[in-house]
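I'd like us to work through together how a protein chain folds, taking it slowly. We need material for that, and I hope you will provide a protein of your own picking. Go ahead whenever you are ready, and we will take it from there:
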Amino acid sequence: MNLNQEQLMIFKTVMETGSFSAAARQLGKVPSAVSMSIANLEIDLNLRLFERIGREPVPTAHAKILFEKAEQLLIEMNQWKQLARSLSSGLESELNIVVVSELLHTHWTEYIAALEAQFPSLQINIFTAPQEDAQKMLVNGTAQFALMFEREQLESNEQFIELKRQALVPVAAKTYGLAQFAQLSFEQILQSRQIVVASRDRSIQPELLYSKNYWRTDNHHSACAIILQNLGWGVLPAEMLNENPLLEQQLQILNFSDFTPKFEYFVDLVWNRESLQGTAARFLIDYVRKLRKKPV
């Protein structure tokens, strides 16, 4: 079978217009070329597609079934060609982006929507991970970009664009012991179990760790679930509470006597400067830079 795109287009047009001559006019061909193409298609498929009775061809049952699939097949062929052209011009076969789990509430999907609008055929994969693991993914090439908190010390191969601020707050369930105090001393914090979001690699010390006794998890959703069970206190995104009124009613923001209970961090889009950037990666970097220049 030697099926090609032009044959499919002619077949589809004949089915839509109802005649060889009308299809020929629409496609800018002579009727004999359309008739010959359909005849060759019937030979290739070993199927009769049209009954040539009277002035106009009558589609067979087989033709009607194949017509339902023809349009989708033509769309997929065009998408395949567009993808091939994009790849030849430097578009990545896929783009992997890791979002630090506490930042899932920061409206990061606007960047993905911009990528999709510009490169509809691009395969985009989104991962979530603790900060330390996200940084590892950039280093080993598992991800091309990371949406992550500012770092106290940059790796030599890191490059970044500052995006926004994100607030984290220490919380406990309202029935938890610590939540009953108007202010907490450092000693109380030190002795109470903390639920920390940390790397899966247990050799890495968690960030924002204050308690001697702590449990670790790799995402803030499971941390929140544990906190709600009165099993400890922890630090969660303020936006997580703002978006969920029920959660806001169940959790108490803890007030530390020696320092502010609200931790504000810059959020960065980070990439490895030593990795070769493809078309989509360069577009994302330029897009974010242009957003930063717009007046607030």
The mean pLDDT is 87. The first strand starts at residue 50 and ends at 51. The two ends are 60 Å apart (CA to CA). Residues 92-295 form a domain with the D-Maltodextrin-Binding Protein; domain 2 fold (CATH 3.40.190.290).
